Amino acid sequence: MDDDFLIRQTLAGNPNAFRMVVVRYQRPLFRFLGGFGLGQAVAEDLAQETFLRAFRNLAGYDANKAKFSSWLFTIAKHLALNEKTRASHRAPHVDVSAIEPEVAGRDVAQGAHEVFESSERRTRVHQAVQRLPEILRSAVVLAYLKELSMDEIATVEGCSVGAIKLRIFRGKQMLRAELSESEE
Amino acid sequence: MSVSTICNTIQERIVVGEALDEASQTHVMACASCSRLVTEWLELDSQVAEGLDGGVTVPDGFAERVLAHLGPSPAAVSRFENLLGRRWVQVALAQVGLAVAIANLLRFVFASLVPGASLGGVR
């Protein structure tokens, strides 16, 4: 079932249709918000707010202007950037869940050392992504999600496809340099 | 196009993550430089994709939680919001507000200049 059909059904008052929209986009949306360096609790709040805003404004959504996925990720991006700005004005706090992701839930038999190395590698990557300039980060994260085409990423970022390709190119080059540096 | 130009074009597409056509893929297989680059970037891509989200995951029952917070149907809400969003409605509301403000100002000025006069007030 495509997004347009689900939106029409939602507007017609079918709650199951919007449930399908949420289920379809929840995982990529959480990964996108995680790419902004937000902790689990904040990501949950913002993902929920993204879907609620999309629902409330669904009648105003114009499929001729942008694909639904681009529209949804644009809402999420604005919420994430607002949150980052707000957080930068607050006292810094350490989000433990962001430092040791998923360690607790891992299979014990995998071996503590392996888990530690995997966790450390993920943390290193996550920190490298966070260090990217704001203008490059969102484009790079969207590119890695593989949910949107270049055209759609350009819509979310509000620039041309050429500019997006350049941002992704530069962002990935910086990531490579940073990660190879931290491995040495 | 020279070989180095072909390599540059293909390598840029590899880095950006664009799909390669048949001819480009054949070139990559035959070209040591492009082939090495593809391997390097595939490694980086899988490493980054794994650590991208910082361990943020979808909690169980998230969709239900969202649905529990949904208000009335967006179509019902939108009729009123669409009306308020129309330019002519906004202009009309602004003009009514301005007219009321001017009337109140005139009333105040008149009451100040003409002591004992009142516009509809009870003395």
Topology:
The complex is a heterodimer of chains A (184) and B (123).
Chain A: H1 3-11, H2 15-34, H3 40-56, H4 68-89, H5 96-99, H6 112-131, H7 134-145, H8 150-157, H9 161-183
Helix pairs in contact in A: 1-2, 2-3, 2-4, 3-4, 4-8, 6-9, 7-8, 7-9, 8-9
Chain B: H1 3-16, H2 22-30, H3 32-51, H4 62-68, H5 74-85, H6 87-113
Helix pairs in contact in B: 1-3, 2-3
Quick summary:
The complex is a heterodimer of chains A (184) and B (123). Chain A has 184 residues and is mainly alpha-helical.
Describe the 3D structure:
- Helices cover 73% and strands 0% of the residues of chain A.
- With 184 residues, chain A is an all-alpha fold.
- Chain A folds into two domains: 1-93, Rna Polymerase Sigma Factor, Chain: A, CATH 1.10.1740.10; 111-184, Arc Repressor Mutant, subunit A.
- The radius of gyration of chain A is 18 Å and the shape is globular.
- Chain B is an all-alpha fold.
- At the A-B interface, helix 2, helix 3, helix 6, helix 7 and helix 9 of A face helix 1, helix 3, helix 4 and helix 5 of B.
